[in-house]
Specification:
Blueprint: E1 11-17, H1 23-34, E2 37-40, H2 42-54, H3 62-70, H4 85-94, H5 98-113, E3 121-126, H6 129-133, E4 139-144, H7 147-160, H8 167-183, E5 196-199, H9 205-219
Parallel strand pairs: 1-3, 1-4, 2-3, 4-5
Helix pairs in contact: 1-9, 2-3, 2-4, 3-5, 7-8
Length: 224
């Protein structure tokens, strides 16, 4: 009797990095290139923060934040309001709450283990994908850039969306967010020991994608 064939393992690409480092664009491009599902995990925390703002509650309210995270509807990730700076700040605050991270952990791991649409792989970008969410990811990439360049990118992004952005304020907020992300007690932003470090300070999106693709293909020519 012939042995039953088993499905090939799901390929998981973990892309971590600070705000405006270029990780989101890179993750989307990699997902499109390989035909994988993509999850911007930061949207989960933004959606949690937005839910609190709309409910008139503080992002520091742990009980309310955990409740919001536990009841998160996937459709909330499509809300255009998630891109605002107030929501970004709230997301950074709720992301430091252990109960919120625990509530969202299962959502992220299920996405990686069984990508929507039966896709053969998944690309997740965030702050702790390679270290906590998917420590056994097939490929891990840690994206960084100087804070001055990241602030300039965020200002450009905000102005192009029609928002009033002042560079000094964006830079100040980004420094505060970096400090929260890197020094929180649970799942801080840090490079996994086996991750590829990709500095995007002097690279455009095409250059970032090319460098990441070279890394992946050098390890497995098929990308899997």
């Amino acid at each position: 009797m012939a042995a039953e064939s088993s499905a090939p393992p799901v390929v998981v690409i973990a892309v971590d990095g600070a705000a405006a480092s270029g990780k989101g664009t890179l993750a989307r491009w990699l997902a499109r290139h390989f035909g994988y599902a993509h999850l911007d995990t930061g949207l989960l925390y933004r959606a949690t923060g937005l839910a609190l703002i709309r409910a008139g509650k503080s992002p520091d309210d742990e009980t309310a934040a955990i409740e919001a995270a536990g009841g998160l509807d996937p459709s909330a990730l499509d809300d255009a309001a998630l891109r605002g700076e107030e929501v970004a700040a709230a997301a950074s605050t709720v992301a430091a709450i252990p109960g919120v991270r625990a509530a969202l952990l299962g959502f992220q791991r299920r996405f990686a283990a069984a990508p929507p649409g039966g896709k053969p792989g998944a690309v997740l970008d965030g702050r702790d994908i390679g270290t906590v969410i998917c420590p056994d990811a097939t490929h891990k990439i840690f994206v960084e850039a100087s804070i001055e360049v990241r602030a300039a990118r965020r200002v450009k992004e905000l102005r192009e969306s029609g928002a009033d952005a002042i560079h000094a304020r964006v830079l100040r907020d980004m420094k505060a967010r970096d400090a929260r992300d890197r020094h929180r007690s649970v799942a801080p932003l840090t490079k996994a020991s086996d991750a590829f470090l990709l500095d995007t300070t002097e690279l455009d999106a095409d250059g970032v994608f090319a460098a990441a693709l070279d890394f992946i293909m050098s390890r497995t020519p098929s990308g899997v």
